[in-house]
């Protein structure tokens, strides 16, 4: 099966179909997942520790959003440079919303880490993470659709990548709604705010980990082997 190449860097088309997902996104998501679980486990034994674990988990989720935004923007730029060499990068600015949201989450996480109104900043960060998950799930679907339009054909490998994008995008969208709701509940019920946001970190971290290239790419290589 031949491999279609798009973009000035000679990157495979599947890289865009993967919607900008990277192993780094999965790594940061995994860190947030572990910190969320540990925080819930030690909440009763070590009061106050959940604030630090929560803040670091939100920082990891913010970094994951930034990585996703950067990877997706670069994927769009490669396609634009191939199809419209004289077009600048302004048309992909909408895909970098994840980077701005991720930066906001990192800033709120750092402020919470130094005990600046963590009861408000951490739930607010969780809400922003939920919004970011919703946005990047939609961007992933759009990227997969664009890749198909540019490639001009739907091989078995490309269809498999599209199914992966749609499946993981759906999971991220549902996770985004759940995380945003948990963040809102954390803002309204301060007594359990840290526990709710730790649960939100687990949900968001799991969604980002499952969407990472390391897992989805392994599946595609198993189902659709790449041959010259």
Q: What can you tell me about this protein's structure?
A:
- The protein is 75% helix and 0% strand.
- The protein is mainly alpha-helical and 228 residues long.
- The longest helix is centred in the first third of the chain and has 35 residues.
- The radius of gyration is 19 Å and the shape is elongated.
- It starts with 13 loop residues before the first helix and ends in a 5-residue tail after the last helix.
- 49% of the residues are buried.
- The N terminus and C terminus are likely disordered.
The DSSP helix count reads: 8
Query: What is the approximate shape?
Result: elongated
Average pLDDT, all residues = 76
N- to C-terminal distance: 6 Å
Unreliable runs: 1-20, 214-228
User: What is the rounded Rg?
Assistant: 19 Å
- What is the total number of structural domains? 1
Write the layout of secondary structure elements.
Layout: H1 14-17, H2 23-42, H3 49-83, H4 97-113, H5 118-151, H6 156-188, H7 193-210, H8 213-223
Helix pairs in contact: 2-3, 2-7, 3-4, 3-5, 3-7, 4-5, 5-6, 5-7, 6-7
Which features characterize this protein?
8 helices; elongated; disordered N terminus; mainly alpha
In a nutshell, what does this entry contain?
This protein has helices spanning 14-17, 23-42, 49-83, 97-113, 118-151, 156-188, 193-210, 213-223. With 228 residues, the chain is mostly helical.
